[in-house]
Amino acid sequence: MANAKTILVTGATGNLGGAVVRALLDRGLKVKAGTTRPETVTVPGGAQIVKTVYEQPETLASALKGADGLFLVAPPLDGEAPAKLMPVIDQAKSAGVAHIVFNSALGVDQNEAAPLRVIERHLMNSGVGYTILRPNFFMENFSTGFVAPMVAQGGIYLAAADARTSFISVEDIAAVAAAAFGKEHFGTAYNLTGSAALDHTQVAGILSEVTGKPIQYHALSEEEMMQGARDQGMPEGAVQYLAVLYQAVRNGWMAAVTEDVTRVTGREPITFGAFAQKHAAVWK
Fold first, then answer.
1. Contact 121, 114 (CB under 8 A)
2. Does any domain span residue 264?
3. Containing structural domain, residue 29
4. What is the pLDDT of residues 195-230, one digit of tens each?
5. How far apart are the two ends of the chain, measured CA to CA in Å?
6. In sequence order, what are the residues at sequence separation of 6 or more whose Cβ sits closer than 8 angstroms to the Cβ of residue 11?
7. Model pTM?
């Protein structure tokens, strides 16, 4: 029966969503790959592309039809995420979805006002079977995310001081998500980290080694980082969100290492060194 499940994956063309699509297909599950621009994207073979726009309930009604499960991800750095995602949870419940796996973020359960925590609470009280994933910062931020252009130029410019972060690959988050759908991990929350906490000087050292070119970490003040993000065209709401995230880093809250990836998947998380080797071509 498990193999007959159909899972709708939102944000399916993003770093994490794409990894979740692949992990679900590998488990023999049917996948609807949700994206705001279905006419312009490709997804792994075997997945059905569907349009999902959170602010357009009619797109979700169509996408949720026949779905047993929903992988729900918030738009990045979006303080308005609760207003967008809470109606989606309600709509999924009405559509008969039995299991929602929500991708939240490490540490949000320590702040009831955090946007992602507001969504977590709504999901917990929805009456739908749920699993909450709380991953740390993605390793992929360095390969295809907002830090990647900096690395290509030979530097990492962030307001992280010398604090450590237990970075995690989206491949490991996706493996946990797929396992959660496969085994119906209802009513659970997993704090997902890599197996080691690194500061950005160590990260720069690893990237230098795999690329063969010098990459340096430059510790910025919070205001310098925020202004740099504005100069790159980041909306002010996202700039403020970014500042809060790196306050958490500087406070040491992102340095924790958990065993949840291993507990759920049965294997150790990918190390930053292995991740960097795999993606070395991106920075060369």
1. no
2. yes
3. 2-138+169-193+256-270
4. 999 999 999 999 999 999 999 999 999 999 999 999
5. 46
6. 17, 34, 35, 73, 75
7. 0.95
